[in-house]
Amino acid sequence: MSTPFAAAVLSSSILSGTSLLYATLGELVGERAGIVNLGLEGLMLIGAAVGFAATSLAGDPYIGVAAAGLVCLAANLIFGFIVIERRANQLAAGLTLMFFGFGASTLVGRPFVGAVISGLPRLPVPGLGAFDALVWLAAPTALLLWWLLFRTRWGLALRAVGEDPAVAFAAGQRPQLLQFQALAVAGLLGGIGGAHLSVGLTQTWDEGMTAGRGFIAIALVIFAKWNPLWAVAGALVFGGAESLQLQLQARGADVSPFLMTMVPYALTLLVLLIWGWNRMSAAPAGLGRNFFGVE
Amino acid sequence: MTRLRFLLSACLLFCFGLPAAAATTLTVGAIFVGSTNDYGYNRAMHDGLEAMKAAVPGVTLLEAENVPETAEAERVMEGMIQQGAKLIFATSFGHQQSAFNLAKKHPDVVFEHAGGWMLNANFGNFFGATQAAWYPMGVAAGAMTKSNTLGFVAGVPIGYLIGNINAFALGARSVNPKVEVHVVVTGSWSDKAKEAAAAGALIDQGADVVAMHVDSPATVIQTAESRSVYSIGFQSLEARALAPKGWITGLGFTWGPFMTETAKSVIAGTFKPAMVRLGLGQGMMAIAPFGSAVPEAARTLATAAADRVGAGFNPFTGPITDNSGAVRIPAGEAWGGDKMGSFDWYVEGVVGKAK
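YS: structure for the whole thing
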C-alpha cells in the first residue's frame, strides 16, 4: 500500500512547490524589469479566492485558473499604474497591494467558504505519476520564461530596463511599456500560483490560506539569482522542506513535531545566509528604483 | 400619489412591524473566529444557535463571523450589547479575556464562553467532553482499516488534542490490536495547504483511514476522498457531505440543547454560571450518520462503543501504557475531568512524538 519514501517526498514536494514556482517566476520577471512587488502574498490570495469562486460558479477548474490569472493580471496593472505612471515608492505600494489582497480576497471568497468544487483533475503520465495540469506545465513555463528573458530581443530589452531604464531609453527602448508587460506576466503567474493552492492542492478556500507563501516566493527570487531555471530548483527545495518534515512525521520519525515545523523556515534562513553574498552581483541594478524619464 | 403610498406603507409597518419587535424576548449575540460555512467548529456553533432560535420563541440572533482573538472581539461584542443583546456566546478559546472584561463592565448581560476556564456571576463556560467521544471513532476506524494504519492530522498538539488522539487509538486497538495510528502535526489550527500535504503524507505511508483535529475538516476529508481512502470527521456533523464515497462517520458538537437551556434561563432570570463539560449521550456531542461504505458489523461495533461511552465508560481506565512502554495510568486508576488537558504522551499504538 505505502509509497516508497523517496518517491513520496518527491511527489509531495512537487505538489507543494508548484504554487511557489508560479509565484516565484512571476515575481522574477517583474524584478528583471526593475520592479519589486512585495504585494505578492496579497496577489496570490486574490488568485486563490477568484480561482475558487470562478470554479464554483462555472463548474470548471480550468475556467477558475484562467479567471484567477486574468484578475491578478489586472490587479498588477493597477499596481503598475501606481509605481510606473505615478512613480510611487515600490515597497510602500507593494505592501498596500498585500493588504488590499487580504481584504479583497476575503470579500470575494466569503460566499464560497464551504463550497464543494471538483478541482483540477490529476492527469496520469505513464512512468512519471499523476499530477494536475498546472504541475505538468510548471517546469515548461520556467523554461519558456528563461528563453524569453535570455534568448529574445524582448528579454534583452526587459533586462536592460531592469539594469538601467535611462540607458535602455537612450538605446531606443520604452522602459515603461516593458515594465507594464513584465507586471502583466507577473500578475498572471502570481494568480495562477494562488489558484493552484485553492483549486489544485486543497480544493478549499480559506481566508489567508497562502500562509506566507507569497513572501517565501520573494525570497526564492533571490535564491534563484533571478534565473527562471534556478527557480525550479528553489521551489523544489522549499516545497521539499515542508513535505519532508510532514512525511517524516507520517513515518513516525523520532523527532519532536515542534522542531519539524521549523524546518522550512530554518532552511530559508540557511539558504539566504549561504547565497547572501551573491546578491549584489546578481540583482538587477535598477531594482526598486523608479524611472523618472529622461529630460 | 407617492406620498400616499409612503403613508400607507408607514401604517402597514406600524401595524405589523411593531408587534414583531415587541415579541422579541431576548437578543442573543454570538461571535465566531472563522466563517460559519466551514463544515467545522464554527458551523457547529452556528447550527447550535439556529436550533436555539427555533426552540425559544422571540429570540433575535446577532452573529459576527471572522472576529479575531484580539481587542477587536471586545468592540464587536460591545456593539451587540448596544443593540440590546442580553446573552452573548463567545465561541472561540481566544475570545475569553475580551468577553470576561465585558462581563465585568456589563453585569446585566450574560456571557457564555466555549472551552475556557473563567467563571463569574454572569460568565459561564461550556465545551464538549471530546476525549471519550473519540473512542467510538477509533472503533469505527479500527473496524474499517485494511492496512492497519490510521492517519491523524493534528493542528497544535495541546493536551486536549493529544487526549483525542489517545482515545482514538485506544478505541481502534480495542477492536483491532494490530492498528497503528500515525500522527502528523501541522503546527496551525488552519493551514489548508499543509493539511492537504499532511493528509497526503499519511496516505503515502499506507494510512487508509484519515481523521483530523483542525478547525475545519474540509481539506483533509477532500484530500482523503480524492485519493480514495476513508475519512472520519470532527467538529461538525455536516462534514459528511464532503466525502460521499469514503465517509465512515464523524464526531460533532451539538450545542443546541445547551444554548436553548441557557437562553431560557436568561429569559426567566434564573441563570447560574457553571463550568459545563458534556459528552456523548449528554447532549453536547453526537455521532454523525455512517457512510454507505461502512458494513453492518462495523456500524454495530461503533454504535455499541458510543452507547458504552454515553453510559459512563471511561477509556482512560488503567492500566494504560504510553508508546515508549512506560505505564502512565496504573491499574485501578482512571483519568477524567481536568486531566484530559494534561496529556503530553501518546498511548501505545500511536506512532509519533508528543513533545
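YS: worth flagging: Chain B touches chain A through 47 residues (CB under 8 Å).
IM: good catch. Also The mean pLDDT of chain B is 90.
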